TrEMBL record:
Residues in Nitrile hydratase beta subunit-like N-terminal domain copies: 26-109
Domain of life: Bacteria
Protein name from the UniProt record: Nitrile hydratase beta subunit-like N-terminal domain-containing protein
SUPFAM superfamilies xref list: Electron transport accessory proteins (SSF50090)
Pfam families in the cross-refs: NHase_beta_N
Transmembrane regions: none
């Protein structure tokens, strides 16, 4: 059975520590920038800019760092903030795109609501 990369990548996260939020089995995006950054990660991995598993390991590490923080210093939980941190990390280590360039593109979209 053949599977599209996007299906493989999201299915590989099911039931794992890096599993994205879902509602009725569908990915949940509260803000447009969350969907954009998720799509960007899939696109860059599919294009061979980095391995999906390398990204997942960065995401798991980002989540673990948040969990290890002292409660008094811990920011509010936000899966997609951890996702973005992991994406910036894997992009920086692969020399794919400058983190500042990516942050500039996403900053404009961060306040827009998700489209239905």
């Amino acid at each position: 059975m053949f599977m599209r990369f996007e299906e493989y990548a999201t299915a590989s996260m099911l039931g794992e520590p890096d599993s994205p939020p879902r509602v009725d089995g569908k990915l949940l995006f509260t803000n447009r920038w969350e969907r954009d950054v998720f799509g960007l990660a899939l696109s860059l991995a599919k294009a061979g800019c980095f391995e999906w598993e390398a990204f997942r390991q960065c995401l798991i590490a980002s989540i673990a760092r948040w969990e290890a923080m002292d409660c008094a210093n811990q920011p509010r939980w936000d899966y997609y903030e951890r996702f973005l941190e992991a994406l910036l990390s894997v992009i920086a280590s692969s020399d794919t795109l400058g983190a500042a360039d990516l942050e500039r593109v996403l900053a404009a979209r961060k306040t827009a609501p998700a489209a239905c």
